[in-house]
User: Fold this.
Amino acid sequence: MTTKGMSSNTILLLLTLLISQSFGYYDVHEDRKHLVERRRKQVFTQADACVSELGTSLGVSFLDCVLEKLEALERDYDNNGGEESCARDGEVDGDCAVMEDPFPVPSYTRSPLTIKHDFNDPADHPGMLMDFIRNYTCARDVDGGSPVLDKHEWVYDEAEVGAALLEKICQENMKSEGSAQWNKARGFLPAGNDVGKAAEMDVESAKVHCDKLPMCEGFTFQMTADGNNKPMIFFKSRASRSGVVASDEWKTYIRFKGSGYCDSNSAQQQEQISTEPPRTYTIEILREEPLVAVIPNFASQEDCDMLIEAGGTDEVMGRAHESGGGPSSYRRSYSTNIDVDYESPTDPITRFANRMFAFVRDITGYSLYGPGQEPINAVLYKDAGDEYRPHCDGPCNGQRNQYGARVATSILYCQTSDGGGQTSFTRSGMMIMPRPRDLLLFSYKHHNDTWDNGFTEHSGCPITGGRKWIATQWYREGVNYDVPWNMAENV
Assistant:
């Protein structure tokens, strides 16, 4: 479905139907609906005029055009005496009524578009304006995506990269508090996946007991205040260091799955990890800094099927919630996390995650590795109007980078909706049209080690039909299994 040739009223009706329950100015009190509708028509009318002039709703030029036209209406209104002029002339309808009460354009700066919020404005016209512009561009999927500025080739040698990563893990494991066969982590393994019965015993006895239990991959226990060296120990059939929830009151021991590989030489490791030849990918650069890039067909259909299965059924994926516990109106979607065991180099999900990290590491120059990172976040949009409102994944404040904070995001599009569902960069006029199996990457740390100041604010446009399934990975520098993401600076 496209909106080519639609009037502002038609687009208004479409958006009202699709997003009637979403956050912001579509779910308003009765006493504000008339004002919101009038303001929306004013913005959409000028947006239509800009599309007629420019041929698109994308780019900084469109944002500038809408703001300039709204400002021109304000000037005309002021120059003509506003409402007092209408009263003097005795006019109620006609041109005077059209000019009455134009949209009050708030203070703003360009590059990126930053609109100053006015806390003395109960109607929040600054937020209203950004909301309307974003939703107008989301509804115009006829414009397609932002243009590709440049293309590069990237070669991925899985065997070579995998062996190097394994060597790094083997070296770190030798330095860990555990042993060649066991890793120790601060924190606990979540409930579920129990194997055998919990029992009170010391750690060395627990290791022996786990060796005898079928499918036992590790154990977890809460340390006792009295220093008892025989705590209650819970044995787990699924255990990985990435799945440990940080806590100073718990300890977890996990069998090191890479020990067999660590005893092999480099050539043997490469052959064990992968026998596939190097693959060449095309990188599409949409913006140099802060970087926005797309790799078409980064994932195979088999990769996507594997990730979707790991994410679980629709019933397993929970509705996004606010921090207070209620359903989120800001993020209307369903999601779950996929933990990656980076110590299992031949696991298909680990192999895919290593490929993502290798790409992001190579193109950004950041020091990024899988251990200690956030899990892959699987997100499903399946109901008409499902969306993610504008937000930043990092600080977006232009300040100095803090080691351990997020520096980049990748989004893998495995399923794309029948309409809508674009990724819009709301303050810089960019739009990404999702294509199945493409990987979108954007970074928000500049080369001078400062954070982006708003160019990477983005949103997931409302879907109008079908399903959209994505896998999101956030990237942090300076994290590892000893200092995982949930112990690093939280942004």
Remarks:
- The first strand starts at residue 108 and ends at 109.
- The CA atoms of residues 124 and 176 lie 54 Å apart.
